[in-house]
Amino acid sequence: MAPGSTPISSTRRRANASAAWMAGFERLGWVVASLLAFVALWQVIAMIANDVRRFPTPAAVLETVMQLAASGALWSNIGVTLVRVALAFFSAMIIGSVIGILLGKYPRVDRFFDPWLVLFLNLPAIVTITLCFIWGGLTQTAAVTAVALNKIPSAAVTLREGTRALSRDLNEMALIYKFGWWKTLRHVTIPQLAPYFAGAARTGLALIWKIVLVVEAFGGNGRGVGYQIFIAFQEFDVSTILAYALAFILIVQIIEFTVLQPLLARVNRWRR
Amino acid sequence: MAAVMGSTLTEPIKIRVDRKVFPAVGERDEQLVLSNVAFEVEPRSFLVLTGPSGCGKSTLLNIVAGLDTDYEGAIDLGPGKDRMTYIFQSPRLLPWRTVYDNILLALPDGDPRVANIPAMLARVGLTEAANAYPERLSLGMQRRASLARGFILEPDILLMDEPFVSLDDPTAQSLRQLLIELWNSHPTTVIFVTHDRAEAVQLGTRILRLAPGRASVVQDARVRLTPAERLDRAVVLAEQTRIFAAA
Ligand SMILES: Nc1ncnc2c1ncn2[C@@H]1O[C@H](COP(=O)(O)OP(=O)(O)OP(=O)(O)O)[C@@H](O)[C@H]1O
Ligand SMILES: [Mg+2]
After folding, report:
1. Which of B28, B32, B55, B87 for mutating ligand 1's site (highest number of atoms within 8 Å of CB)?
2. DSSP H helical segments within B155-232, as ranges?
3. Which domain range does residue B241 map to?
4. pTM value?
5. A-contacting residues of B 43-72, CB under 8 Å?
6. What b-and-e string marks burial along A254-270, b requiring 16 or more CB atoms within 10 Å of the CB?
7. What value does the CA radius of gyration of chain A take, rounded to a whole number of Å?
8. How far apart are CA B243 and CA B201, in angstroms?
9. How far is CA A138 from the centre of its chain?
């Protein structure tokens, strides 16, 4: 009964496009089947647990999602969190990249600052978060800084790697053909660093999605998904926790597939 | 183009490399690649540098181009130094830009020579590949793109490092012809590296031979052929035998 199991007719498929379409359809089928199985399992466990408050059924969670969406709370809190994610993400990427490129470019600077980088890489997230709130108060800036600080060191390490790997051959070519700094940056350096930016962006976003909620729960000022989950935790309101989690996962996946993946495909289109 | 005729190319290029060593790395000892290499290249002449693999030809060209500054000696390119182009031993195209864009990028922004790109692409047989990315082309095609990129600039000083290797004979011959045309239509001083003795004689007005053990110039010969004679294989072969008899 799995969607992929329809018997394939013996007539040869002529168009490649139709084969690709079938493959996509089959993959989608597997995803749907897998998710349905997950929901079924959830339903069974919820029925055994028989405690709507601590282990709500999928239907109960869906209803909570609807209510939160109707009241507008869902959208406003997700909006607040997304703004924090965006601010933290872009500032971490920019600052981390600049640091990484400088370290990759100047080995002496790198030798001096490398221990600092190791220090920050190993600093537990909870320490940066508490310190940011102690020093910055329960403000938006402190929250965004706390999230960004957790990402900057690893972005710097990735971009340092990319900068070290820059092609000397192409740099010499740019020199001989008098590209100047702007043309060199745009046509020679940035395309070489693009895969490293992309790598840092992907792992960065994955980290930031998770850490932003912790930061909000910890130092929330009344708004944001993390803070709502924290309130729900105090009231043992599992249904609300799961409702926010589901909505959040959905948004993250939509961003991944509509923004990140097409961007990666575009950056890589020259490859063999 | 006509305006610059003869204006910049009045002084010879003066090359003097007293000593070039590559420092020891790991197990490998310090390596003396060039020592007491000194010569002048007359304006508009076509100098060929030849010698076995590893004797320091590319190293010398990198020094002349100003890419390698870690040597003892002095290079004076004269007034043509701002109109110098170096066609590297490897194509060095930007893999993320199309063939057309690679050539376009060699020109300063807004340069009118953009109009010459299609004709240049046709001349090197890459019209069809204009919008292809370099990594999807054969090495020979990449080489031709790199030649087009160098030639489009109509340089006063042209450094070339084995530009025609890995090309089939008719293609190589046609590109040599293109080089000669460029050299005739525009006052260019060429320094050309090759292993190929027939090519050296066919193109060069003067041949310098480097030898690995000596790290220096071991032969300096003039080629005495008229443009017509250069097209005659038998004459080229005879001149080649005369020049390289000592080698
Ligand atoms: N960056 C480098 N570091 C250390 N040694 C080098 C470096 N570049 C070249 N060499 C050494 O210098 C010598 C000359 O190299 P070069 O590339 O100039 O030779 P070539 O005459 O151009 O050879 P080919 O005809 O094979 O291109 C070689 O022995 C090479 O190993
Ligand atoms: Mg070489």
Report:
1. B55
2. 169-185, 197-203
3. 9-80+192-247
4. 0.80
5. 65, 67
6. eeeeeeeeeebeeeeeb
7. 24
8. 9
9. 24
Residues whose CB falls within 8 Å of the CB of residue A226, separated by 6 or more in sequence, listed in order: A81, A212, A213, A214, A215, A216, A217, A218, A220
**Considering only CA atoms, which of B172, B146, B145 is closest in space to residue B160?**
B146
The residues near A180 (Cβ < 8 Å, ≥ 6 apart) are: none
Locate A170 and state its tokens.
Answer: 């192409």
| Number of domains observed in the structure of chain B | 1
Residue B54 in any domain: the answer is yes
Ligand 1 site residues, Cβ closer than 6 angstroms: B 22, 31, 33, 53-59, 89
Angle A23-A27-A32 from CA coordinates, rounded to 5°? 145
Per residue in B202-234, pLDDT tens? Answer: 999 999 998 877 778 888 889 888 888 888 889
Residues of B in contact with A186 (CB under 8 A): none
DSSP conformational letter for B69? -
- Crossing angle between the packed helical segments B139-151 and B99-106, to the nearest 10 degrees: 30
The counts of H helices and E strands in chain B are: 7, 9
Measured CA to CA in angstroms, residue A123 lies from A4, A116, A142, A153 at distances of 47, 11, 17, 10
Residue B41 lies inside a defined structural domain of this protein? yes
pLDDT, tens digit (0-9, with 9 covering 90-100), for A148-185: 999 999 999 999 999 999 999 999 999 999 999 999 99
Question: Which pairs from B196-200 meet CB under 8 Å and 24+ separation?
Answer: B196/B164, B196/B165, B197/B50, B197/B240, B197/B244, B198/B236, B198/B237, B198/B240, B199/B164, B199/B172, B200/B48, B200/B50, B200/B240
User: Does B246 reside within a domain?
Assistant: yes
Bridge partners, B19 (sequence order): B35, B72
Give the distance, in angstroms, between the CA of residue B135 and the centroid of all CA atoms in the same chain: 23
* Contact assessment for residue B95 and residue A189, using Cβ atoms and an 8 Å cutoff: no
Q: What is the CATH number of the domain that holds B59?
A: 3.40.50.300
For domain A56-271, give the fold: MetI-like fold (1.10.3720)
| CA dihedral of A201, A203, A206, A208, whole degrees rounded to 10 | -70
Instruction: Tokens for B117, please give them.
Output: 């790109």
Q: Is the dihedral of CA B74, B50, B161, B206 positive or negative?
A: positive
